[in-house]
Design brief:
homodimer; 377 residues; alpha/beta; Isopropylmalate Dehydrogenase; Rossmann fold; 3 domains; ten-stranded mixed beta sheet; binds 3-isopropylmalic acid; IsoPropMal-DH-like_dom (chains A, B); NAD (chains A, B); EC 1.1.1.85 (chains A, B); IsoCit/isopropylmalate_DH_CS (chains A, B); metal-binding (chains A, B)
Chain lengths: 377, 377
């Protein structure tokens, strides 16, 4: 019997509650499909930061880097730690450190879930967003400069390339804040190839998102690489879309989309909109994938500290993320069974959390899905 | 009787058709409310560019800068001119040249219009987005650099400040495209003050949009200035919102919003989403405002070259933009009358273009609204 060692970062707020349900369901699937999971608990998050001053240490990063998949709850509690510190210090840190260049976001309206959109059903909302996850305006290069002149040195080191900006900045403004986004040919190429391959396994339609009419430099390169890569996939239908238009089509014509490939920042925005049209953050899982390294699976929702300990929030996003994790580990049957069990729970509609109009608790939903996994098996 | 001289750039695709209706309605309002308009036609757009190689000349910019308000149709025709050239060379050029730092976008669902959102009515969708219009990632600073080292000099000159970046870039990447965004204290301050003042005239609630947890430098400054400005407006209720969450709330809780102040790029995205929830681009006007200089009013929709000459598209966004223009010129009564006439046309629901399920032509709708303006008057 296979045994997987999976590090777990439950994190802040409702993180521990939803992760508990995710583990429950994965373990149920393990019983049916014949595998064990050893959970390796890690303490990172707001409390750990307050207690130790540490976000995540280089040592811990190395340690976690020995595993293929991390299960993550949610990070952040603005009552304890200023916005940005844990996001940049733990979440983005891991995405970059493990070079998880693929952010996978299934946008799928499951039967039994209501979308806020008129006249749209589960047949209309079923696409995959592939968000580039390591470049663009997320690289953390920038600074604030006051009247006068200043030199700044900014460096970006990636597995696939490095770039150094030596800046000499002169301004008569009281203060400016600047931010540099970077798109590389290597970085664009690998995400395009992943997306085209994925489109081939689906309905063979890939839509690219950019704003190349305004940010002509970084997204001009993005477009060039898309166009070049497309030549190797003549069987895949393609189109370019400005990000502003994409938000409109998600609402008006979600059925247009099959696979959507997007730069990091626009991806952040449109995947939240995607979560909303599939019924809300409580139903939206995400994967941060490095096919050859350490990946990480998480619900899209935040830590919602207000709800901590109330056994109220929806664990389905986390459970679904658990299915993505199992799929990544090669347990495809178990992964499919979990998604089916989620669908069955939603279709029955009896055991639901408040966001879906129900009165059940977080743990009730987890138990119900675990039960269905076993019954199905 | 007052006479206003108003430069008109009808532009490409359906631009001339919708502008014709806008002029028709403004002239009708002039008859009723006692003013004349002298239209000064300007040729800028795709055909002009193809014929002359000119986007808009410094001389023309100076000439147009003598007037208080420009009426703009739409620019761009990708069959004739590559994406980006006219957008950057004419539209953004004017926004920057005239320092139109306020982009005003009423998001208002008018009675008689269907929103794609379930359970939302005109009572729920009625807010104003104030998009900063001259900074952020729209400043056009960036470059593409191939393996090796390169020096680049980028300069930004604004009425309110200047900044010079001398860059020394070294990379081992095959090619990178980089883009620099800039937020200044002066630029943030004036848009915050405008927005707080506007909130005071409305429901006294101002929501700020940013992504300060990731792009900590430019949006950190944005947040600081918002917080400082808020101290002078203790009667206005405020909140910060990450842009990804904003797209969700526009769909789920649009009634939450009163005035929304947003950096340029996020503003581009969320105002298109706003247009969609108010019934589509055919109904969404925009103003590019410099309170002390030359402003510009335009429909949000593109030039839709495919529809050119078909007398099909909805002119309401353009007519509404005309009302914003009149309001800006001080003709508040006439402006209000036009908006009321638009509402009456939509409520009656008899003369509608195809996007609203009707069969009327562009010019029918313009004539109907002009007629109502006169009847009302
Ligand atoms: C928490 C935040 C840093 C993060 C992001 O912006 O990527 C989140 O919004 C996401 O989409 O995973
Ligand atoms: C045409 C384009 C350059 C423009 C923008 O990005 O600002 C448009 O989308 C808008 O919102 O006015």
């Amino acid at each position: 019997m296979a045994t997987y060692k999976v590090p777990v970062i439950s994190g802040d707020g409702i993180g521990p509650e939803v992760i508990a349900e995710g583990k429950k369901v994965i373990e149920a699937a393990g019983e049916v499909y014949g595998f064990n999971v050893d959970w390796i608990h890690m303490p990172f998050g707001a409390d750990h930061y307050v207690a130790t001053g540490e976000t995540i240490s280089e040592e811990s990063l190395k340690e976690l880097g020995r595993y293929r998949a991390i299960y993550l709850g949610s990070l952040g509690d603005e009552r304890k730690v200023k916005a940005g510190i844990l996001e940049k210090g733990v979440l983005l840190k891991m995405r970059f450190y493990y070079d998880q260049y693929i952010n996978l976001r299934p946008v799928k309206l499951l039967d039994g879930v209501e979308t806020p959109l008129k006249n749209k059903t589960s047949k209309d909302i079923d696409f995959m967003v592939v968000r580039e996850n390591t470049e663009d305006f997320y690289v953390g290069l920038g600074g604030r400069v006051k009247k006068g002149a200043e030199k700044q040195e900014l460096e970006l080191k990636r597995d696939i390339y490095a770039v150094k900006f030596n800046l000499d900045i002169e301004t008569d403004s009281d203060e400016i804040g600047y931010q540099i986004g970077v798109v590389s040919r290597e970085g664009a190429k690998r995400i395009m190839e992943y997306s085209f391959d994925l489109a081939r396994q689906r309905r063979k339609h890939l839509s690219s998102v950019d704003k190349a009419n305004v940010m002509t430099e970084c997204y001009g390169l993005w477009r060039d690489v898309f166009t070049e890569t497309a030549k190797n996939y003549p069987d895949v239908q393609t189109d370019f879309n400005f990000v502003d238009a994409v938000t409109m089509w998600f609402v008006k014509n979600p059925e247009f989309f099959d696979v959507v490939v997007t730069p990091n920042m626009f991806g952040d925005i449109i995947t939240d909109l995607g979560a909303m049209i599939q019924g809300g953050l409580g139903l939206a899982p995400g994967g941060n994938v490095n096919p050859k390294g350490t990946s990480m699976f998480e619900p899209m929702g935040g830590s919602a500290p207000k709800y901590k300990g109330l056994n109220k929030v929806n664990p389905i996003a986390t459970i679904w993320a658990g299915a993505l994790l199992l799929d990544h580990l090669g347990e495809k049957q178990a992964a499919d069974a979990i998604v089916k069990a989620i669908e069955a729970n939603l279709k029955q509609g009896k055991v639901r959390t408040y966001d879906l109009g129900g009165t059940a608790g977080t743990s009730d939903v987890g138990s119900d899905i675990a039960r269905i996994v076993k019954v199905q098996g």
